[in-house]
Amino acid sequence: QKLKYMLQGKQRVLAVCVALALGFLWIVLATSGNDDGKNDEVEGEDEEKQEDAETSSSNQKTTVPSYKSEFGTAKMKAFELFKRNPPEYEEAADWFSKAITIAEAHESLVPQRIALYNNRSACRERFGALELSLEDCAVVLAANKTHAKVRRRRARIFEKLGRHADALVEICADLLIQREDFKRSLQQGRTPEQPAPAENVEAVMRAVGKQRADEIIAERKRLGTKFKLPSPNTITQLLMTYVKYSERKSQAEAINVVDLENQVNSIEDDNVVLETLVQMVTVYTYTKRYQEAQAAVERALTLLQKIEASSSSHVSSKCLAEIWRYVGLFRHLTHELSESDEAYRRSLELETDSLLRAETRVKLAGVLVDSGEADKAEAELVQALKEDPESSDVYMHRAQLHVIRRDLQSAQADLEKCIKAAPDHVLARLRLATVLIHNQVDSMEIEEHMLACEKLAPDMSEVYQVKGEIALANNEIETAIQHFDKAIALDSTNPVPLYNKGMALIQLPDGGRDPQRTKDLFEAALKVDPTCMVALMRLSELKLQLAATFDQARDVVDMLDRATVHCRDNDELLELSTVRAMAIAQLEAAQNVGLTSFQM
User: How far apart are CA 404 and CA 407, in angstroms?
Assistant: First the structure.
């Protein structure tokens, strides 16, 4: 959950930010147009009128072949029915069919065949013969891959048929065609209209991403997939959100865990061993030895089951409550949410200390949030506040819930309450500084919190990480890079300043940009924390921008596929699946319109 709630607001827009990778989607959504096909005019009507005029003047000298006369009559009748008020699309399609039959039989009419198929396709779409309309579209595209109207029509029809992946390919193809037309117009000294995607582009992207994400979730359930522990940084960030973190860390560092291990191996009383194992879990957890802590939790749980089966338990309720609290924590970390929920509730049944009960409810609320039950999470936080009215943990985590709900004013209020209750809570001050930036609060107030953080934790990587983010928000790029460098030096396991530095390099003036160096930073962030999805998304965008061949673009898709194994959060999985869907659609569209390389 590494700063997860604070980052989610940024991650929500990643599907739209994939526009940066597309090259031709650089004006996405802001200028999108509504193309429902109602303005889709038939082709060739003006040419037909011109032909009639020419035929009329020449009839005095020559006799027009009967098939041309029949052909002209069929076309004119089709146009008339198409334009009639109300239009009679089905009959118009029949007359276009007659014209097509004549055109197919006479070589002199070859130039008009494609327009006829396009017109019949438009009629068929209007009266709901969607599959037949697609057949006509295929004929047109076989002759002209860059027929923009047909690409847009196919996108509409595919969406109506629920074939969202196919629709997305056509949307991308249409944008590619527009982009090429735009470039040619600029080269010719004309002022062209900017390319504009269909109004439904985001909805289609989401539909494709959701289908893929749902398939992955269903497969995980079928296979009983279990996750490994997240990165050490992720776990540490979660633990640091609790006010007791520093105190527990200091206590754990003062204990010789080897002595505890020796006691466990030498004591015969299982009840005493169990209590010692709980101490070991605490020491391992707060000295960042998370794998060993997890193993000790499983060992304690196995021993507890043995003791309970033997009916010889005299373990204190306090110890049992602590065991189940740790089971809840590590089940949450491995995304076994129902098991974590159950463990925390068992802890609540045993715990008598009001402060620990409040903390347990806050942790349970985190599980409920990840389960998509925000209202139930809020109810637990309300109950926690009743048990400990001065709990800074409640305010801290309720602020995170407000951020998820995009209620930054309430988040600010709760973070201020958290700091009032716990003035030395560095992470709360850092998060408040981030929220204040978004709430456009006076910079002096933000600076006061940052100075307090530097004084409280001068060697904390996250302090300089946030200082860099503030500088970056103020467009002080060089200063931001300096702060990110210090954050990286203080904690090489923190992926966020690596990612942020990469983002800062992107914003340097053209002469200072170094795509390869930016790429290296994103890759370094992922090496430190493979679950850092925001770095993965940006890396995929950058690699797509740099891809010159279709094989290089396919490598990006493969990278996104491999990354799904690290996605335990459903929202993150949806974003990743959406970015992957757009990359695949972009690749297929480029090939469909006849591009010979992937260079955008």
Answer: 8
Closest residue by Cα to residue 257 from 231, 296, 227: 296
59-84 in b/e form (b: 16+ CB < 10 A) is eeeeeeeeeeeebbebbbbbbebbee
Coil/strand/helix, residue 198:
strand
Helix (H, G, I), strand (E, B) or coil at 33: strand
Question: For residue 78, which of 36, 19, 114, 122 has the smallest C-alpha distance?
Answer: 122
Specify the DSSP element, H or E, that contains 565: none
Taking the complete model, does pTM exceed 0.85, yes or no?
A: no
SS (H, E, C) 290-307: HHHHHHHHHHHHHHHHHH
Identify whether the C-beta of residue 195 lies closer than 8 Å to the C-beta of residue 152.
no
> 33 Cβ partners below 8 Å, 6+ apart?
196, 197, 198, 199
Start-to-end Cα distance in the chain: 36
CB 380 within 8 A of CB 361: yes
Q: How many CA atoms lie within 13 A of 334 on its CB side?
A: 20
Residue 63 DSSP symbol: P
For position 600, what pLDDT does the model report? Answer: 53
- Residue ranges in the chain modelled with pLDDT below 50: 1-32, 49-60
Q: What is residue 576's DSSP assignment?
A: H
pLDDT of the residue at 226: 85
Burial 270-293 (b: 16+ CB within 10 A, else e): bbebbbbbbbbbbbbbbebbbebb
Alpha-carbon span 56 to 31, nearest angstrom: 46
Partners of 198 in the β-ladder: 33
Give the per-residue pLDDT at 19. 36
- How far is the C-alpha of 594 from the C-alpha of 575, rounded, in Å? 29
pLDDT in the model for residue 39:
62
Prior bond of 86 cis (ω within 30°): yes
Torsion angle (degrees, nearest 10) of CA 176, 181, 182, 187:
130
CA distance 421 to 11: 31
- Displacement of CA 384 from its chain's centroid (Å): 32
Q: Cβ-count burial of 516 within 10 angstroms (0-12 exposed, 13-18 middle, 19+ buried)? A: exposed
Q: State which H helix or E strand residue 457 sits in.
A: none
Q: What DSSP string runs through 328-384?
A: HHHHHHTT-HHHHHHHHHHHHHH---HHHHHHHHHHHHHHHHHTT-HHHHHHHHHHH
pLDDT at residue 585, rounded to an integer: 94
Write down the pLDDT at residue 4. 36
pLDDT, residue 64, reads 60
Among residues 141, 169, 156, which one has the least CA distance to residue 38?
156
Question: Which pLDDT belongs to residue 206?
Answer: 93
Interacting residues of 525 by C-beta distance below 8 A, sequence separation 6+: 495, 496, 498, 499, 502, 532, 535
Bridge partner residues of 33 (DSSP): 198
